[in-house]
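Sanity check

After download, print the first record. It should look like this:
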Amino acid sequence: MTLTVPASALDYFGVDTLVDDDTRELQAAVRGFVDRRIRPEIAGWYEAGRLPVRELARELGELGVLGMHLEGYGCAGTSAVAYGLACFELEAGDSGLRSLVSVQGSLAMYAIWRFGSEEQKREWLPRMAAGEAIGCFGLTEPDFGSDPAGMLTRARRDGGDWVLNGTKMWITNGSVADVAVVWARTDEGIRGFVVPAGTPGFTAPEITRKLSLRASVTSELVLDDVRLPADAMLPGAAGLSGPLTCLNEARFGIVFGALGAAHDCLQTTVAYARSRQIFDKPLAAYQATQLKLADMALELGKGMLLAMQIGALKDAGTLDHRQISLGKLNSVREAIAIARECRSILGAAGITLDYPVLRHANNLESVLTYEGTSEVHQLIIGQTLTGHAAFR
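Expected structure tokens:
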């Protein structure tokens, strides 16, 4: 490797050498989509607090990234690493875009793919893979986020039907979804249900006035005597392990995705520092700037190498869910730190939507919280190290 100015800070870590040509081509295709379709529009979408989800879902379906790591039913069946690198490129565009893809593929589609009946899979997965149907995942409740076992949503049997009552909160894609995978407490434990939009008693009011993930649809799900047939239940999921397994799939995408946001911040900041003149020389020529950039590049590279190792373990079938906690904790924590440091180098320009860094920083505040807060992942790691659970 020659020590010239790299196209990316990750070039120094040789990350590109860890994947095959097919994976590189797929990553390049996703990057090209983001450059062509997302970057020219994302600042306006973010400022307006909107995202054209249905339009983008069809385009993402054509690109082949919706449920791309699943097998069959119109899904591409790619490696975990390929899916992770796609998430990296999508979140380099915006966390809202990667959230759309993650919720569709790793939560809603994965729940049906892993736990659904053959009829449920055939009905929903091909359309969802194509972006013709949009899904959401209803687990979190207003008072139960980190402790989903306390959920209040209930499903009771009524003859041959199920009747659901409850409220879910902070649901990505909720108000535009064609189908919701909803988790509820039953007399037999926690079970999952496939709830088509338009079912009487099911509503999904959108949550507005957000300061983070503005280019993303976030909603409540309200279930008021929602009556479903017996075959709406996911037959393969019993207990809390069902939704937690789905969350691990989504967390895996975040391990890569958050680093994509950090990479976009760093690339933007290096370019800005090289062109910004201050006291008759480029900002990049000052020692203080170079020290900051070097530290950020190091943390980004270390995070990416950890992500690639986690991906390799997942592809080998040996990944432990606690290792995903390592990756999620590290990637999001370091990504936020990088975004904030980049903002400082850009000075006043860093607070505008002319540059992506503060948009990424604001989005990452949500990514820090969802799919398990940093504190939850710290406690998972702590329990692994000590053998003692300290969640209460």
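If your output differs, re-run the checksum step. Summary of this record's structure: Residues 241-275 form the longest helix (35 residues).
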